[in-house]
Amino acid sequence: MPQFCGMFVLRLFLCCAAFLQVSYLQAQPLQSGSWLFTLNRTGGLPVYVSVNLQNTHGQWQAVFRNDTETIEVPSILMRNDSLFFDMPVFESSFRLQMINGRKLVGVFTKGVSTGYQEWQVEAKFGVTDRIPGSGLKAAFNISGKWSMSFQRPDSSWRPAIAEFVQTENRLTGTIINPSGDYRFLEGIVRGNNLYLTAFDGAHSYAFTATIANDSTIVGGLFFSGNPPGDAFKASKNAQATLEMPAALAELKPGQTTLSFRFPDLDSNIVSLTDDRFKGKVTIVQIMGSWCPNCMDETKFLSDYYNGQKMPQVEVVSLAYELSTDFARSAASLRKFKQRFNVRYPMLITGVKSADPDKAAKTLPQLTDIKYFPTTIFIDKQGRVRKVHNGFYGPGAPGYFEAFKKEFYATMQALLAE
Fold first, then answer.
1. DSSP 81-125
2. Which carries the bigger pLDDT value, residue 115 or residue 35?
3. Distance separating alpha carbons of residues 54 and 194, to the nearest angstrom
4. Residue 309 binned pLDDT confidence (cut-offs 50, 70, 90)
5. Could you give all domains of the chain from N- to C-terminal order, each with its CATH number?
6. Pairing relation of β-strands 82-86 and 77-79?
7. What percent helix, strand, coil does the chain show, rounded to 5?
8. 3-class SS of residue 7
9. CA angle 390-393-395, nearest 5°?
10. Rounded to two decimals, what is the model's pTM?
């Protein structure tokens, strides 16, 4: 009997201790500071994101970081043990539960053409390294320019350029395609392996590969969506260049102008024949609120438009969204409008970005629409003078500066006429 009582007391003590430990962990306040978010897709590579969580005067906020880029989430809703917040630009959000003050688990949701997609998320406090794991010394330094090739589903290869900067183990840079750049990549070289990730609020990139030697990268695997991912390889080439494909958007033979009528975000119909465009140089931006390079171009165009001393230039965006639902498209575009202080019209074409006949249905004067964004320059007489396919943003600084130089030269020439 005494032995039975002793065992009962011991078990009761252990149960109480476990309960108190769980209660203590759950009662821990959410920690301010550096967090590492891990986004997991089934069968794919994890995407690691550096996030700073801060409580400012009772309001929780988040700052996502990719190299030099910061993405600010000004308001997080706290409800009991859970956090809820939308990303500031794209059609995406987080729902996270606090396991304790140093760990969060939950779901990342983003809009896709078929509806919405969910990824599992785990976040840990106090992790300052972008890529977790051992601090194995880098076997190679891969700083510089690389000729890169990604394998398509039909086994053919599409060209790209990689530009890397490596300091000890830390690796940053971007990858250039004919249509644009992969923006701000950040990661690590560990031994002879590289691992890079980026997260812009919706798009989650992960790259891994083996560095065979100073000038060769092999066995690459890239995930931007669902498995199986894309294989890639690269060779160092300081003179690497890209040729634009032949099938670019351009005016059809015999055409000199554009014509369209689309609703803005408040359902008001806007046309190039409206008084606001008459006698002005006009920039028509073909874009989508799902598009990261469109985000960068929208910021650039909005800053340019808002900085005019005299209203000599008009800008109008034509949006090709993930769905044909007007309300969903308008809600997503309003994020762009608010985030980048867009004061020019943003119009909804009502045609999906993935529609192969989108040009014929919306801008039949063009041969096709291949790249987002595509920018069309129209002179004071309403004639199309130039069509620019794709956009390189601040994540690819050299290309961005070249674009700006070309843009300002084009605008100066058109305004002087």
1. TEEEEE-SSSSEEEEEEEEETTEEEEEEEEEETTEEEEEEEEEEE
2. 35
3. 31
4. confident
5. 33-125 (2.40.128.120), 144-236 (2.40.128.120), 261-416 (3.40.30.10)
6. antiparallel
7. 20, 40, 40
8. helix
9. 130
10. 0.90
